[in-house]
Amino acid sequence: MKTGAPGRLLIELSIPAICAQIVTLLYNTVDRVYIGRMADGTMAMAGIGVCMPITMVLSGLSSLFGRGGAPLAAISLGKEDKEEAELFLGNSFLGLIITSLLVMAGTLAFKEPLLAMFGATANTMAYLTIYLYGTLFVQITVGMNYFITTQGFAKTAMATTMLGAFLNIILDPIFMFRMNMGIKGAALATVVSQLISCVFVLQFLLGKNTKLRLGMKTMKLKKDVLTRILVLGASPFFMTTSEGVMHICFNMQVLKYGGDIAVGAMTILFSMFQFINLPLMGISQGSQPIVSFNYGAGEYGRVRKTLRYAIIACTAFSLWGTTLMLLFPSFFIRLFNTDPELVSLGAGMLRVYISGCFFIGANSLYQQTYTSMGEGKMSFFFAFFRKVILLIPLLYILPAVFPWGVFAVALAEPVSDLLTTLCNKLYFDRFMKKKLSVS
After folding, report:
1. Which of 4, 9, 341, 426 has the greatest count of CB atoms below 10 A from its CB?
2. What distance in Å separates the CA atoms of residue 42 and residue 127, rounded to the nearest whole number?
3. What b/e readout covers 375-398, taking b as 16+ CB neighbours within 10 angstroms?
4. With helix as H, strand as E and coil as C, how does 363-410 read?
5. Three-state DSSP class for 281?
6. What number of other Cβ atoms are within 10 A of residue 57's Cβ?
């Protein structure tokens, strides 16, 4: 981390992270493809869209403790303080278990009124129930994988992610079609595959190859350690959980202007956004261990070089992915569902929805860099700025101002993306000048 060429290190750490994100995207996509091709696929897709806000809130826990604790552990390693780094690992792990169990119990207790409020069916409730019982495995797998990556073991983190993804792809058709479980089979496939991944993640962190070992002495909750984790993790937690609120707002608005078929199309659009966003997260996550370690070690020149390479890679990918979807929107919609009405509506919505993603790669890296350097406040501010100040109000303002129905709803996404990236860029340049003033 301290002596290797930054560009080479970024490639070595980013490629496994990108591969893991792409495979994650693949199994999420395959999941929806199988669901979309069921006998009642269009309505089932809309049902998954109803569940998505709740599952996003649950997955936010892994970001709270994983992305909150891992950069702090890497900064401590850069300062050669292994004991403190292991405290961040242990407190994150215990915090993840406690909050996952509490949220799982609370959501199970109130899932029926929650889902009924959004118009869920009995099948949708069954899907969520099975998913909730496997929440702990999912959170540990994702949350603790950040600590594997932050030590420089990106290939190991990739392997655990890919293991769960490939198992899910294999188990989906078995449970859904061969065992006639339908949409419930999709949830069971996710739980079983993540349970196996969870075993491998824990095996590594308890084993001999890890630099940071999980142990009982590291899992004693310390107020100051936990506070630092929660403060830094607040931004990624908010970014993830606010997706759930955002999805609710999107679904309610497109339902109002386009009916159930528009909700199904919106679910596909969310997946297409992930097609661009997840690989960008892979590049950003690849930069995190290098930036955190060298920032802690005072090697500011290496931090600058790493970020320079990462911004080029992020921008190039976001330009490529956005252009591809703008040129061939119908192709991407047909991957999920071949209903002519849904394809026609979804293709038009996708062109509008994705048009602000040309430079979203830069915004993604800015957000990760604030977190990587232990500065969670600005990361939180820009996440809040994009979602609460811009996106959610625009979802209601634009359809009221422009007579374009669901297309006006979709327009809220690119407007908020472009404005946030511009404002973030202006602040980021000043932030870096201040934080890295000594070379």
Report:
1. 9
2. 16
3. bbebbbbbbbbbbeebbbebbeeb
4. HHHHHHHHHHCCCHHHHHHHHHHHHHHHHHHHHHHHHHHCCCCHHHHH
5. helix
6. 18
Distances (CA, A) of 198 to 83, 98, 145, 192: 24, 16, 9, 10
Alpha carbon distance 207, 365 (integer Å): 32
Give Cα separations from 19 to 15, 156, 159, 286, 374 (angstroms).
6, 12, 9, 11, 26
**What pLDDT is recorded for position 439?**
42
To the nearest 10°, the Cα dihedral for 183, 184, 186, 190?
A: 150
The tens digit of pLDDT for each residue in 312-323 reads 988 898 999 899
Q: Which of 43, 25, 53, 24 is nearest to 182 (CA)?
A: 43
CA nearest to 292, candidates 74, 87, 86, 83: 74
pTM attached to this predicted model: 0.73
- pLDDT tens digits, 78-130: 888 999 999 999 999 999 999 888 888 887 887 677 666 655 556 667 777 78
